[in-house]
Fold these 3 entries.
Entry 1:
Amino acid sequence: MDLPLATDLNRHAFLANGRGQALIVMTSVAGCPYCDLVRDHYLVPMMQNGELLAVQLTISDTRNRVTDFDGIDRSSSDISKRWQARFSPTLLFFDKRGNEVAERLLGIAVPDFYAAYLEERMHVSAKAVLAQPH
């Protein structure tokens, strides 16, 4: 299983929030070994276990069209720029309204602690999602 590319952020977030989770969006670039590490060792296994729902945006991709939270189709690159998410990998945590509900997780400077950082943000973002009115 690979991490799916983002296609419709509202739909992705609705599905994640319906499970009591934030949508996790990973910004990446092709050939980034740190992106591969985050994707292969954390996000994909956790997604397979049902612990999270995540999609990825390639920040240099000007061709792939993604429906943004405002309903407008944009390129992955344009969405990354709107979010000022130029560093890869960056994990962003969203509710169904397109609000970030946890601090971004930038890079993977300390791999030994990455799982703890990710789990903490997942906990914070899930609390925020669950506290919202349906």
Entry 2:
Amino acid sequence: MEDASAPGARLPNRLILIYAVPTMGIGFMFFFVVLYSMKYATDVLLMAPAAVSLIFGVSRVLDAVTDPLAGYFSDRTQSRHGRRRPWLLGAALPLGGAFLMIWAAPLALQGAELVAWMAVAVVAFYAVMTLVNVPHQSWGAELSEDYHERTRIFGMRHLMTNVGTVTAVLCLYFITQSDDPRGLVLLLTTIFSAFTVIAIVSAALSLRERTEFQGRGPQAVLGVYRDLGRNPHARLIMVVYFIESLGGSTIGVLTPYMAQYVILNISFPLVVLTYMIASTITVPLWTALSRRVGKKALWLSSMVVTSLGFGCFFFVGEGDVLVSYVLAFILGAAGGCGNVIAPSVTSDVVDWDELQTGERKEGGYFAAFSFMQKSAAGITVMLTGFALQLSGYVPNAVQDETVRLTISSLYALFPLSCYCIGALLFTRFSLNEAAHEKVKALLAERRASLKPEAAS
């Protein structure tokens, strides 16, 4: 079993890789649902866009309950196996089953029965995804307390997530070319459900947790969010992350519609693949640059570039294929930067919280940020569904000018506004490397003073 207990030393690449591999499957599942479930439901299952939007909206409401509970109980778990491992082992198989259910609706189902099936599948998928993702992210924050090591850890996690995401996009390319998309979807999702379950279980059995954090979770579930609300650093980045996720979800939800009905003659999986390749290959760049310019400056710059990149898409129209690929690459690189830096910054904020409260609440904090991300994606799906229906969208047909303008506005102007607001707010963030070093020093003094008491 790999030792993940050294708090400050440089971690072996092998250990970080073992930790990150499960996110290949998690990334495949999450992005496949975000990118294709709306299009699959409306154009393959022939469900009404508003009904699909309502399903995702309900799942977001339920996340308001499941996310904080997952974080709280993960932090509070005490066992000889650790705080995080039991959750990963217990939720791996249900996650694979819930994901498969989304794509395995029986052919005989129609109308209300089909809506009910999809509602159960989507709600179950997001609920169980929380039970896997929150403990796994929290485990990453515990692997090291070093300011820059955390960027390495979450950089590798993002890299592996993108490998899964790129795989999902490649699968979508073949699905869009298939004469039997429903059958091919079921085959591919079955394969990757099995892979994800095996990867999660294998990693959970291979890594050792830091036992000194056991028994130091929050005393009450609402106390987590009371403390989060009192933490000025957490309040700020939570709002920023929500706004950024709100705009960033556009690339997954609306790219299929933008490609098919506005740009024309362009493969939406290849557009998304371009985005993901850029997001993946630039991970080492962001990890290195964060040491030079700092996490704040790097994340802030990525927000500005992303806002401008999305804004340019408003002027993209029929036949603008090359411009679309260039913009997708720029957006992928900038978006990848945010995905690497955000969880690293969140881990630093957890240390600040420990200094104030004496508790370790990685689970609670990452649950809150998971809820922000999923809520943003759900809101974007809801907004898209209702906007398409109101504009007169007709599946698999040539769209009129109103529908095309609606799609372009949602794809460009909406994320442009989101990222501009997020960037302005983030200029106020103050927990930089120097401030974090002071927090670490004070925590080290406190822990040293408590050791004699623990021994006695």
Entry 3:
Amino acid sequence: MPLILLIEDNHDIAAMVGDYLEHAGFEVDYAADGVTGLHLAVTLDVDAIILDLMLPGIDGLDICRKLRSDAGKDTPILMLTARDTLEDKVAGLDAGADDYLVKPFEMEELEARLRAMLRRAGGAMAAEILHVCDLQVDTGTLQVRRQGKRIKLTPIGLKLLIALVKASPKVLSRRALEREVWGDIAPDSDALRSHLYNLRKAIDKPFDQPLLHNVPGMGYRLSDPDG
């Protein structure tokens, strides 16, 4: 039975989500503030986290950053937010969230997105070393290096990179990339754009030659700039 950590300070929403998920076959642990939520997220072996953006103590963005950067956790995170602007969505994804859901939401969509995250996190692949130019991806250890330097990526950034490396030098359409990460539950266009922006910052910005290219009207390609 998957263990879900719900970090939500609105007791009515927390009770509704908790009851629904328990009836759907999940085990749910709960925190009503950011400090407690961060402690549980670090100390418990949970399968996924449902995280509200606005929390007392520590907000959802800081919890995401601390889990990804300080604790080194790659637990799938679904962020709940009442803010639906592009800037707020990008901020959540930049902080390390894997997906987001804008309040108010339907419980069926929450469950579907949660199950999709769990499937992605549990998907197995045969270990192999993938290369494009001086970029190396080890699908066994999930380590990424360029020019020998270790690059840290979010789980979604890693999935996008692996898809692009495997397809290289072919172009992958936006829909193909979305399907690779989110399956048939497509996010709005902001999510993919934000993750690709972060991926480009990680694998290209510190280096002289860009590898990730936008092909207008077609999609994205990872390729050797000299090839």
